[in-house]
Amino acid sequence: MIKVSxxxxxxxxxxxxxDGYNPDTDYIRVGVKxxxxxxxxxxxKFDKEQVDGDKVFEDNGVKIIxxxxxxxxLIGTTLEYSGGLxxxxxxxxxxxxxxxxxxxxxxxx
Length: 109
Description:
Layout: E1 3-4, H1 6-18, E2 27-34, E3 40-47, E4 55-59, E5 62-66, H2 68-74, E6 78-84, E7 87-93, E8 99-100, E9 106-108
Parallel strand pairs: 1-6, 2-5
Antiparallel strand pairs: 2-3, 3-9, 4-5, 6-7, 8-9
């Protein structure tokens, strides 16, 4: 399961609404793809539909879709949002990552 912090929820609702998505019915699609300075990187986008094999979760009022392959890398991850001086954006706190890069956007197992 993927958790969503309160700060991330607020930003997700704001961005979904700005992009024409309905936070009550549409989803955040979270995935993992090859690339980044540590080998794997996170992929985050909005989606209106599920695909066969997707895992669907809801936490803190946010609906989340994860494809089957990415799910194995993301079990136990918390999606957070940082708006501090060191940068603004979504942050993945992934307990499965053995190593992350300085920007926090890629990881390895």
